[in-house]
Amino acid sequence: MNKTSDGLLAGVLGAALFLVFLFAVNAGPIISLLIGGAGFGAGMLLFSRKKPEVIAQEVDLKTSISDGQKKLVEIQKFQKLIKKPMVVAKIKEICEVIEKILEDLEKDPQDLKAARQFLDYYLDSTIKILNRYVELSAQNINDDSIKASLMKVENMLQTIKDAFEKKLAQLLTNDVMDLDTELSLLDQSINMDGLRK
Hints:
6 helices; flat
């Protein structure tokens, strides 16, 4: 069954319920329409080829990527709030790695589990750190402890970038392993079928 036939069957169920409740039960057009709509929705779930857990995984993936993109936009905004070119450049590099990780998740949803901590913890921590950096640097107070804190954040940005790049490499390594497995299976099939020259 394809999506068109799934929708057609659900539509037939919804229409049948509408007609039954409108004419046989005399429920009135509004109630009949509501019941027909509910029937259509139930039919889409009933006749859908996707299992509920697959649908839940797809929703989880879309939500996670959407949340990640919102956090990325939030991090990008710091580039306009910070005056130090070196810090702005480092934030830009971090954002480029985040974009690549989100692109990888769209291409390979299986990587979501491995990227969960990155999306839920690391991005949030980066936002918090940059937010505090902006707040402290806006104070314009010549205090050694504030200068030291700002310097720690500036040094930490390289560590954050390196960690994000390492996470991206881990996610891409899974793709390389999948490719190696496919190549190995194809090679075995060629040998078994006697197709090698």
